# Entry
Amino acid sequence: MNATVIARPDAITVKASAAIVRSEMERSERRRQEIIFAVDSLFNAILAQKKVIEALESSAGTMQKYRDRVITLIEEKKAVPVDRLRIEVRIADLEQQLLKERNVLAVLKKILKNTIGIADTGREVEPEEAFLAQAADVSFDVEALVRDALEKRPDRRSLLSTVEAQARAVDVARAGHWPKLSLQGSYGMRWGAVPYDSPAGTDAVADVGRIGLYLDLPIWEGGRVSAEMDRERARLIALQERLRELDLRITLEVERAVLDLTAIEARIAALEKGVALARETLKMEQEKYEVGAGTTIEVLDAQTALIEAEKNLARALADRATAAAQLALARGEIR
# Structure
């Protein structure tokens, strides 16, 4: 039985291993956050698509009622048959748009199920519709957000741990120049296979052991150790450069997310006014047509403008929710 005990525990290697473990854990956490953001984005896209479909369904219903009214006016000789034809064409176009948008919604739901790992067994995944109504706080201290992101981002913490592990690797390589003191020992038993192996008056079996201190001096290893140190230093410098680039990218991501969120809030305010104005315009054009002061084309144009305004607002609300999630992801705080 042999045993070797190193007099100086290799604490550097232990610390390097611990840093690598931390790096992998932080990398896993960042991946989890990215998946959450992907699911959030799909939820927002589904909600926006449902709002678009609702707008088209509402417009189709309005056009059908308007067609019925025009039929009555035609019978009363207050409108011409071509007005009815124009409305029928618009209703058919709305039905085609509805079919297309419903297909898009079905695809988005399937993508969501795949992302969160739900088998497509017919069970529906319905996001909470009230989520899009949540206004974002746009009073930001960008510098504070950047500092917070640099401290909390898991991918940066992962890279910091990798840099620490590589710095330990440099220390390990440097330690190759150091002498190594070790305590070695062995213990066993010796016995004779035949009688004459043991002198007269002695036992056939005897205990045998040894113990000693050994000093290993790397006299002829200087070139190899220096080359190893140079290689590990080069890796460390490359990792430090990656860390610098990541810091710049994190700063850019936070600043861009803040700008996007601020711009979307302003856009939503304008679109809400636009929707209200489009609804009022449609009502006015319908009333003008009733008294003979307007045309069917003007009514249809007003109705098209309302549909586009409502679709743009729905998508802007989804963009706001996604931008808020993007900022949380950039800060490393998405949950």
Summary: DSSP finds six helices and three strands in the chain. Residues 222-290 form the longest helix (69 residues).
